[in-house]
Design goal:
By secondary structure, this protein is α/β, with parallel strands linked by helices. It has 6 helices and 10 strands, in the order E-H-E-E-H-E-H-H-E-E-H-E-H-E-E-E. It has a single domain (about 5-195), classed as DHBP synthase (Alpha-Beta Complex), CATH 3.90.870.10. A hairpin with a 4-residue loop joins strand 2 and strand 3 (about 40).
Length: about 200
């Protein structure tokens, strides 16, 4: 049965952030807010937690996974970034963008695209997400909270509780988070390209 924390969306309570991170470190799967929707998250070494997310979302082996990072230093550990990509990404973060980059050797295989060897990276503009990352000290594995049969991600934590209370370790209630699809930028073919236009604007492309 999931625990349920009401966390202020702009001024997250440090005590609740610490308890949330304890749950993550214990192998838990949490539902938490980002700047685009609610998402499912777990620690990078949480193999069983990752499989729980796969089951909840009914994901196949071809699914592109995403890491939520605190800053560019964390990003560079898991993704190969040349100077052009670095400058562009730096100019856009934090915000509603997903960057598809070639994975480094430090990126666990289970998080990479099995054929392309890529990883999605996000650096969102959300105080709760950033507080979790700061306390955790490493990136979060992230999957948008869209359930099988639904067309859009979940936006209301009460609905998440009704549908997933028995599947999750923690639900963070930060109020309703309106869905805004992230803009997906690919950097794997040399020249940056917009794969999906979402909420984030890229002035130079």
């Amino acid at each position: 049965m999931a625990q349920y924390f009401n966390i202020h969306p702009l001024s997250p309570q440090p005590r609740l952030i610490r308890r949330s991170v304890d749950i993550l470190r214990e192998g838990g799967v949490i539902a938490y807010p980002t700047d685009t929707s609610y998402a499912l998250g777990c620690c990078l070494d949480g193999k069983e937690a990752l499989e729980r997310i796969r089951r909840i979302r009914q994901l196949d082996e071809q699914h592109n996974f995403t890491l939520i990072c605190r800053d560019m230093s964390q990003t560079a550990t898991f993704a190969k970034i040349d100077n052009e990509a670095f400058r562009l990404i730096k100019s856009l973060i934090p915000g509603p963008f997903t960057f598809i980059l070639k994975a480094t050797r430090e990126t666990p295989r289970r998080l990479q695209h099995p054929k392309k060897k890529t990883i999605g990276i996000r650096l969102p503009d959300n105080p709760i997400t950033m507080a979790l990352l700061e306390e955790l000290g490493e990136p979060l594995f992230n999957s948008t909270l869209i359930l099988p049969g639904d067309e859009e991600p979940m936006t209301d934590p009460e609905d998440i509780r009704d549908r997933l209370e028995k599947e999750l370790s923690l639900i963070i209630d930060a109020g309703i988070v309106p869905y805004r699809p992230s803009t997906i930028l690919g950097f794997t073919e040399g020249t940056p390209e917009i794969i999906r236009q979402g909420a984030g604007e890229v002035p130079s492309l």
